[in-house]
Amino acid sequence: MKVNQTKIPLYELLKRMARSNPISFHVPGHKNGNIFPKQARPFFESILPFDMTELTGLDDLHAPQGVIAEAQDLAASFFGADDTYFLVGGSTAGNLSMIMSVCSPGDQIIVQRNSHKSIMNGLELSGARPVFVAPEFDDAKGRYTAPSIPTVQEALRQHSKAKAVVLTYPDYFGGTFALKEMIELAHAYHIPVLVDEAHGVHFSLKGGLPASALELGADVVVQSAHKMAPAMTMGSYLHVRSSLVTASSIAHYLQMLQSSSPSYPIMASLDLARHYLANLTARDLELIIESATHVRDILANSELWDVLSADDPVKITLQAKRGMRGDMLAQALEKEGVIPELTTHSQVLLIHGLAPFTEADYVKNAVKRIEAQLKLTANHDIIDADKLFTENITTLELDYQTMQQCLRTQVPLRQSAGYIAAEAITPYPPGIPMILKGERITEKHLELVRQLLKRGISIQHRDISRGISVFQ
């Protein structure tokens, strides 16, 4: 039965209730926006009336039977899932829940090594014993991508009792890989595949985009709606379509890991984001891709950078040429008011939205100014790619249960090689740990950390200049 995707049930009900100007004798304390700091009220007054709680008719995210259930069902129908859950804690809440739903302490799980830190945190919370599969290094793009099919195949052969395989698809830069083949390999062992598809919510659109993880057969998929669809930050989806994973188990952990006071504006934005995607026409998508191609063309043919090819046409990656660094290029863009998403040692990622871009002329002129400026400041440094992973299949030096019993000490970063890390070192973005908790620190790790610090890259750590926590 075809589902009416023009409906926006949660948003429409919130709008009706806000317009009725109810008298609030309930939380939240801003009382529909009537109690709020005067200097900030103009910026918040349009959204605060939507910031409601579980009032009569507004349903309950943790036991949905009404309007939230209807909104989630509409999303499941559009994305092709059996069950879809709204996430108000970002894809982090989904990644934690999907891992904890399949793993108990001591269980083995096969995990892509260059996964987001939320995946790694899920491993620790579950007490699982991760088997890491290293990604391939793409020399043409100068970065790690995904594990190879032979690596995943060998990991499955060695660890055929693993509870799941966890993969990231697409990567931050929109890169895809042979996900369908890897899913089929895992399913041959009756092992489910859990996919962090944070950057691929738009892949459910048909025409001109890669196939979605659900379409390729994944069992559980987490998507950051706020990254590529018009949803508020922290708004994400978790989809289940599997005979190998129990949706009720995932729902159990979502109740534990998500707030008992979920944000109705975020949930309404998830309802609206699904509506936006579902009602884009084939022509709309053509215009979006044409617009992204136009922006790509504006940025091409530079003496200072190349524009890399991409599986996802709305992701635009600039590759600095010799004599230029990614951070220099990003700073020049920001000076012109053009704000990129991500910067690495040699690359800058720009994300085109899911609508035609209207400021191409400004960008075109900005590029001319940037090139003129950077030609005067190019430093002629040699750019080396950050190669880190040397073994295809690895495990941690200590399991999480043992780590809990170990004493810790702090040592200066320069003296930490050879120790086992008691905390992760994570550049952000993209949020992929360079050093894992439980991993032995190497001189190569330290070299790369020093390079990041020198380039001013943010590292999520209390104060790495004071040292790193290690196990004694």
TrEMBL record:
Domain Orn/Lys/Arg decarboxylases family 1 pyridoxal-P attachment site: 9-301
CDD domains the UniProt entry points to: Orn_deC_like
Ranges where the Orn/Lys/Arg decarboxylase C-terminal domain occurs: 401-451
Positions in coiled-coil regions: none
Domain of life, source organism: Bacteria
Cofactors that this protein relies on: pyridoxal 5'-phosphate
Family matches, as InterPro entries: Orn/Lys/Arg_deCO2ase_major_dom, Orn_Lys_Arg_decarboxylase-I, Prn/Lys/Arg_de-COase_C, Prn/Lys/Arg_de-COase_C_sf, PyrdxlP-dep_Trfase, PyrdxlP-dep_Trfase_major
Alphabetic keyword roster: Aminotransferase, Decarboxylase, Lyase, Pyridoxal phosphate, Transferase
Molecular function, one GO term: transaminase activity
Pfam families: OKR_DC_1 (PF01276), OKR_DC_1_C (PF03711)
Family under the similarity heading: Belongs to the Orn/Lys/Arg decarboxylase class-I family.
Protein name per its UniProtKB record: Aminotransferase class I/II-fold pyridoxal phosphate-dependent enzyme
Upper lineage: Bacteria, Bacillati, Bacillota, Bacilli, Bacillales
